[in-house]
């Protein structure tokens, strides 16, 4: 793995692939290089058998305070179109392994969008989410209006997007945006523990559960049920299904291999 990235730090610890957003002087503002770095590492992790769960966090006092305003302030619509500005974000939606985010401080604009791309989120008690784009005369462009609405419904999504108002950790928990609030000092410890639990599950189960749950967000119940069923069948062709069920019958702990 290439360990030298301009805007992030990446490492592997046991079964976890860690990505740390690393532009703390600008509160991890997300420039194009950072998105490209994140995707390059995530795709490596996705193909690496050692890695079972990806953990995403931010260095310094923020998760990420949004897209880099300085980088885009002078852009026009055609610059975005020609550059296909959000192509790396589309790749992010195709990562197969679970992504667990650890949010401390600000997760605003593109930072909130990045958090919404995670499958599970832990947040420190000081976490603040929000879409302040409206204050800049723009709007979210990396999925914010879509993912937030699908998650919390139209009413709160409109309110938060119209006002740019920040959402504290407690509200985020109440509206199902995050899984857990933990004290800031133990955010990483708790996130790694949580990620470790997921990493010990049968990897192919986790992979197909992720695919099926994400499918549910987009399709009718009937279509989703058909999709789920095929994935359920598929798991019966894995060694881990035989191992998991034998372990149950033999009253021992299963040892999953991801095959
Ligand atoms: N882009 C570029 N630089 C940023 C940034 C951003 N999104 N957010 C913070 N910074 C920089 C600041 O300019 C400042 O740099 P200098 O020290 O060189 O002045 C540094 O980070 C520290 O920030 P502040 O001094 O402003 O810190 P603060 O604690 O007073 O305020 C804040 C924190 C409320 C998050 C404030 O920085 C802020 O409002 N940031 C912008 C948030 C925002 O509007 N995000 C949406 C961006 S648009 C977007 O994301 C579009 C999309 O959908 C893809």
Automatic annotation (TrEMBL):
InterPro entries: ClpP/crotonase-like_dom_sf, Enoyl-CoA_hyd/isom_CS, Enoyl-CoA_hydra/iso, Enoyl-CoA_hydra_C. It comes from the Bacteria. GO terms for molecular function: enoyl-CoA hydratase activity. GO terms for biological process: fatty acid beta-oxidation. Keywords: Lyase. The keyword Lyase applies. Its EC number is 4.2.1.17. Belongs to the enoyl-CoA hydratase/isomerase family. This is Enoyl-CoA hydratase. It comes from Cytobacillus praedii. The lineage of its organism: Bacteria, Bacillati, Bacillota, Bacilli, Bacillales.
């Amino acid at each position: 793995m290439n360990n030298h990235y301009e805007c992030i730090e990446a490492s592997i610890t046991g079964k976890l692939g860690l990505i740390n957003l690393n532009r703390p002087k600008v509160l991890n503002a997300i420039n194009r290089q950072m998105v490209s770095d994140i995707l390059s590492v995530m795709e490596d992790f996705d193909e690496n058998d050692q890695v079972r769960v990806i953990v995403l966090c931010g260095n310094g006092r923020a998760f990420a305070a949004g897209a880099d305003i300085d980088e885009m302030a002078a852009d026009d619509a055609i610059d975005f179109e020609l550059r296909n500005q959000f192509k790396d974000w589309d790749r992010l939606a195709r990562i197969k392994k679970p992504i667990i985010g650890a949010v401390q401080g600000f997760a605003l604009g593109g930072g909130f969008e990045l958090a919404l791309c995670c499958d599970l989120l832990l947040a420190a008690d000081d976490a603040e989410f929000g879409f302040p784009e409206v204050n800049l005369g723009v709007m979210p462009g990396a999925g914010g209006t879509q993912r937030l609405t699908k998650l919390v419904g139209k009413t709160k999504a409109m309110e938060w997007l119209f006002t740019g108002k920040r959402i504290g950790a407690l509200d985020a928990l109440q509206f199902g945006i995050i899984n857990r609030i933990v004290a800031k000092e133990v955010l990483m410890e708790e996130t790694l523990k949580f990620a470790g639990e997921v990493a010990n599950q049968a990897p192919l189960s986790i992979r197909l559960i992720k695919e099926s749950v994400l499918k549910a967000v987009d399709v009718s119940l009937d279509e989703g049920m058909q999709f789920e069923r095929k994935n359920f069948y598929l798991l019966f062709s894995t060694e881990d299904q035989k191992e998991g069920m034998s372990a149950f019958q033999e009253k021992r702990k299963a040892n999953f291999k991801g095959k």
